[in-house]
Hints:
By secondary structure, this protein is an alpha/beta fold. The chain has helices spanning 8-18, 24-32, 106-110, 112-117, 135-138, 148-154, 164-178, 195-215, 257-263, 265-270, 273-286, 303-316, 341-357, 373-377; strands at 21-22, 58-61, 64-67, 76-80, 87-91, 96-101, 118-121, 125-129, 184-188, 223-227, 246-249, 292-298, 319-324. 36% of the residues lie in helices and 16% in strands.
Amino acid sequence: xxxxxxxxxxxxxxxxxxGIQIGESAREVLREIRGIAKRKNFYxxxxxxxxxxxxxxxxxxxxxxxxxxxxxxxxxxxxxxxSRPELVLKHNTGETFDAHLLNDLQVFNNSSRAARVANLYxxxxxxxxxxxxxxxxxxxxxxxxxxxxxxxxxxxxxQGLLTADDVRFVVRAALESDRERIEQIMVVGGNMRDLxxxxxxxMELANAAISExxxxxxxxxxxxxxxxxxxxxxxxxxLASDFDNLHIMFNLEVWDxxxxxxxxxxxxxxxxxxxxxxxxxxxxxIMAPYRVHSLLxxxxxxxxxxxxxxxxxxxxxxxxxxNVYHSDRFSRLGLSIRPSFSYLATxxxxxxxxxxxxxxxxxxxxxxxxxxxxxxxxGLFREPVPHFLFGGA
Length: 393
Ligand code: SF4
């Protein structure tokens, strides 16, 4: 993780709580400059306006990567800077911070095929999203926070279903053009109704990435991460390869059993919370401990419930992942929920305590724009809260 300035993790929490207001001068800058990693609408798309693809996916503030969630009014205003870097973030108390943009990968300029099938997260994760659909939407049982159907419809230039050959092609091209930047390869998606086929599909894509990393001698530096639904046939979990740098995530999204029912009706109906826990337990015995993960969306349930869930997962040998809820356009919950700074601080400190007790691992090493795991692992929430944020709780 790059060195952070004092209080960086607390700033990140406040930015994730309130979002960032994009000032007119910042919009001009974002229209003028070329080559930055822009939001591609692969998955999340905050409340924004037509032309929102001008938004950068993330900003780097005090060395910390934070997702750009634009919800309209916020204490944080992004504006043009008078000198480099081009942008500054101004808090309504008058505090001002340089805001750095991340450059996109060269491979996306060099290859239209790569730009159609992959994305860049946090400046360091080459991400493949497949399929760009989830059958829970067809069934009316999509997760309440998910915006996949709307975003996929809005940005049809991206390929809907990827092949192993697509992944091999892009990984090889990206290692040729951007080798030093790629820390992680992500395979993520919606879900096929045939969950066994869906799991096999994601493992085929992951294995294609692994074979290409090995062929290019990059297997020790770059990890491969799969976020998927577990298969019905748990024997398929044995497809998890012996690649040391493979991580697999089955997401519970919320820990509380009643909320799981209402937030994730499709997962509840078709697989069940207990089923996901059984699959996580089984996979954690197949893979090395703590390379199996489950994400809890932070902000959808009381803080003590999220912490209880993260603790229970850690006790199982599963690394919890805490991703702060972002209010996506097209999602059922949308702007109805916004976790406060004090709520996020409680969860962050609880997670940090877990990192002191268990060898749990972040899913995103440095590039977790809405995740707070890497900051908790580094103990950054032990630093004092910057004085100007006390009014923001
Ligand atoms: S499982 Fe839920 S979060 Fe994942 S793509 Fe389907 S609806 Fe969205």
